[in-house]
Amino acid sequence: MKVRSVAKSVIIGFTGAATILAANCNDGKAVKLVRAYSQIVACKDNHIIFQDGTKMLYDDGRTKSFWQLLNQPDIEDMFYYPYPRGRGSFAPPKGDPGRIRHEPLFRKIYGDSAAAVKRNLVTINWFGKLVRVTRVNGVAKHLMAVQRELRALPKSYWKFLSPIGGTFTWRYIAGTKRLSVHSFGAAIDINVKYSAYWRWSRGRGYSNQIPHEIVEIFERHGFIWGGKWKHYDTMHFEYRPELF
Ligand SMILES: [Zn+2]
Question: For residue 64, is it within any domain?
Answer without folding.
Answer: yes
